[in-house]
Amino acid sequence: MANSLFEEKLNSGEFLVTTEVGPPKGADISEMVHHVDLLKDKVDAINITDHQSSVMRFPSLGGCLLVKERGGEPVLQVTCRDRNRLALQADLLLAYSRGISNVLCLTGDSVDVGDHKEAKPVFDLDSVQLLKMIKTMESGKDMGATDLKGAPKFCVGASVHPEADFIEPQLIKFEKKVSAGAQFFQTQGIFDLRCLSRFMQYASQFNVKILAGIIVLASARMARYMNDNVPGIIVPQTTIDELASAEKGKGLQKGIDIAVRLIKAIREENLCHGVHIMAVGNEKTVPDILEAAQLAGAYP
Amino acid sequence: MIVAEQKPLEEIRRMTAPYERILILGCGTCMTVCDAGGEREVSFLHNALRLAQAKSSGGIHTFSEYTLKRQCDLEFMDLLVDRVGDVDAILSLGCGIGVQAVAERFPDIPVLPGVNTSFMGMAKEWGIWDERCAACGDCILEETGGICPITRCTKGILNGPCAGTKNGKCEANKDMDCAWVLIYKHLERLQQLEKMRRYYPPRNFRAIPRPKRIVGKASIDVGEADG
Amino acid sequence: MYSTRDNNIKAYQASQVKEAFYGHTFTPPCQAACPLHMNISEYVDLVAQGKVMEALQIIRDGNPFPSICAYVCTHPCEDACRRGQVEKPIAIRALKRFAVEFGGDRMIQTEAEATQIEKVAIVGSGPAGLACAYYLRKLGYSVTIFEAYSELGGMLRVGIPQYRLPREVLDTEVQRLTQMGVEIRTNTRVVSLDLVLDMGYKAIFITIGAHQSLRMGIEGEESLGVIDGATFLREVNLGLKPPLEERVAVVGGGNVAIDAARTALRLGAHKVNILYRRSQAEMPADPAEVEQALEEGVEILFLVAPTRIKRGNGRLSVTCIRMELGEPDASGRRQSVPIKDSAFTKQIDILITAIGQAPQSPGDFHLRIGRGSTIQVDPVTLTTNRNGVFAGGDAVTGPATVTQALASGRQAAFRIDDYLQHRYPLVLKEARETLAGDLLPKTIEMIRKVERLEPPLLPPEARAKEFRPVELIYNWEAAINEARRCLRCGMGVEILFQDRCATCLTCLRVCPYHVPYLDDRGTIQIPADQCQACGICVAECPAKAIVLRKPYERQQVTAELDHALKSAAESKFKPLIIGFCCQYGLFGTGTLANMWRKAEAGIWIVPVLCIAKVEDSHILRAFEMGAEGVFIAGCGEQCAREDTTFWIRQRVEKVRKTLTQIGLEPERLQTFILGTNEDPATEMDRFAERIGGFYLASLIMQEVKS
Q: What is the pTM of this model?
């Protein structure tokens, strides 16, 4: 018995497509609503980011409620940066009570990379401990070992970085996340399919679903900026060169082409179980990408 | 060792402005070692304050200087009794502990902190100090190859590196090594990588209630017979 | 009662501190090696600063006849010099020569008056006799020198050739004694000591030298045409010009042999050979002299010894035998062993024998004679077997050096004084420990290599025909540069205030030479035998626990600064700029003078022994006392170490930060390093101009305020 529609699809063996929407900085949520409406029927689930890059925004939980309202399937991104174990448990109880059952457990970016550098970094838990915490809650207890009145049930995921420049410790952590109960993984941005394929050769021994992260880059400049400033992103030089080769004003189109090429190859070569498209501010392009990759409408 | 850095001169001048006779009090232990408040820094600050006064025309301060071997024990304060009789304030270049000890011993004299106490650490090389211990009260260094993830990982996480590590450096500061990369390499060298594969539960932040106290002596009733 | 005791304890503790603060330098190896125990490092250092008069003063304090030593000393100090472990020793004798010539030693008058009633006779006027007379006269005694020859000087006069010691130098020294009131009786041979005592002399110092040449003990040694070295040199030096034929051979390997050979060459001998029974390595003569002799054309036949001399046809036919080196003897020198059937014959005109000399003491002196015909004395008091009769110099030691003789004469003077004053003759104890130990390879590695500058010499072709001094004098710059090579042994730093030391390891980290180390107990040690006295750790020590063993160095910067500030206050030049300048490279060689004289007036210089010794507090103090600008000028590539600039820039940055916080422009503090700044003079002008601007602005601000 699946805990969510998305979990059902995970178990179906279909090629999955998820994407993410970043909440606004401010109370005006109209653009987010527009993006959710645009995407909710074209993908299997929509992630709502949790103060991505430690930049303060409208909350993930609020975004997920909105997705739910608009009839979509949300994935709640939860980081450990801003909440201690009390707040994390409380938020999850709220989410479950409102039908939000997919959770992506993350440690969270450092406060130093964001726009509130002087904030107190919490990190009461890390991502592995967060996964464990959810298992504990599902067992009917809270972290203080007190019985819960009504236990939640979630479909839990985590992230992994197959293109990390020093992969061994990342793999150890991946295994810890699997042991802690992660059912699916949405990877950091994939640019080199050889890395993905090497990682899958190893990851296929575990009973988890891997969704390759696809970042839609808008320009070579953006790629370089992300390399320097966004944690966990390593855009290879060949990709930057390819973006740079685009005619002026056609950078985004080139980024879309690259994303489409990657998605098509992943699907054709059956490299992993799906893709997670991160359009980083260009959410409106996701339908075009799906169409070009011949994924649009594949799943009602 | 406790590591601190001297406060900016402007701030020190602002603090000392209301007082006429000021004793600049150095500390001969950690503050000497970390170059923040030893004998030489006391002299330097003394000179700087005098110069500032000469240039601002209108100063009325008189300064004296003295350096205690340690400011963090009350017995040392007895050496100050003759020196603070006619001062209006003590500018302590001791760490936060020293400042409080001076204030406790001389409750009638305002004590001003001359340094910002920053962390416990060691010198990387001459003139560079790195934090090494957070005094968490629950040491796990045996598990992490002698490298403290609580202090040296910006997030203080226990189950391995985050995805932000790049070129062995931290996402928060590209000059700082990623503690977990160091831990991995160290454990690999010791052939103890299984320690990294182990799950570490959430930290106990209640090792000892704050403010912490360690009671090293046994509580013995006077008159009680042994055995 | 207790309070008295407490006071005593306090007084004692205070005295301990004082004691610890002074006299904790070590005797450098050069000084320990000098028979006169001269304060060599001190005067070399003063030469390096260009302070020639001061250097000469130090030299004169330790040596009655520095001009003589400057020419003929065999400089054992240079053999001991630890710079020799780096590349080559400091040219100490040549630097002394520079100091006595440029300092005008020969102009200096010495005065003394008789304050004692006792008269002392000195028999012999060699260096020991002259020195003894000098010091006894200084002590106030009436002194008479008896000299058998017509002129004073002993071996200085009759033994040493003029090209090594010009006679005017010797004459000046002798005149100095006359000025002091020493009575001189030449052409007076003392034959009986009893007679001298009868004349009223209360003490006699016998210093008759070792003028008797040793005989070779071979057949034909008495032949016409064979002359001993001492006689030959004496005759030449007293003005007799022995006729020299075509070919001359000298037998021996010591300094006399070399002197005789070079003298023969100058007298016109066509070909001069030295026959020496061992190889060059065993030669006792000064290697530099040997080198110069070879340059001039003297040929040395090594491993050759004469066995028979035969005269015929107005010539000498000398049979020689070839030798080889055998086992070392008791003294460690390898024996020479004849090679069988290796005899050969050499045809020459004159043979000079110079295989050694011994004293010849008249039997009527009734002195106890020991090994090698030397007079036996108590080595501490120099007393002979006769009451009131002392002896010293070569007569006691056998042939030795001029400097040893001077030392012996000085010792005799003090011992005679003790005798006449009925004092117990105490051996003078060296208050300081002698610096022992070689430089470690890691220390040597970090010392900047600077090659020794030899003083210029007359070209060989010019000197072979005349008796002018072979060695010329350094020019000013060469002397300073050579003197700067001194490693300043024994002047290093020490952790004076161990109780303040927090073992922070700063000294260990900042030392350019990696000298400080942690001992087994975790205490930091700065071994004196390795420290190069740069002073960087002194300025960087956060506990101010380290001092230079020469305590005045830190005080010196402060004192010079106060002096400059005081002079500036009396002057009308505005604005005031203080410059801390390396006084070796910049001041000494005059570079600095050229640099700042072009700049506008108002610049006051604080000379420092290396800018590494300028502390941040010194800079702040200059500003506090009214300086509008401060600069630090270092000698850059000339500096003894690579790191100086780094450290001074660190301190400058720190002070600039403080200046900024006080509201002063950081540009008011500037560093000039020779070799890195494009043109120091122009930069200095620009700096002075900028400071002028700041000054003007501040004046206007004051106007506006008031």
A: 0.79
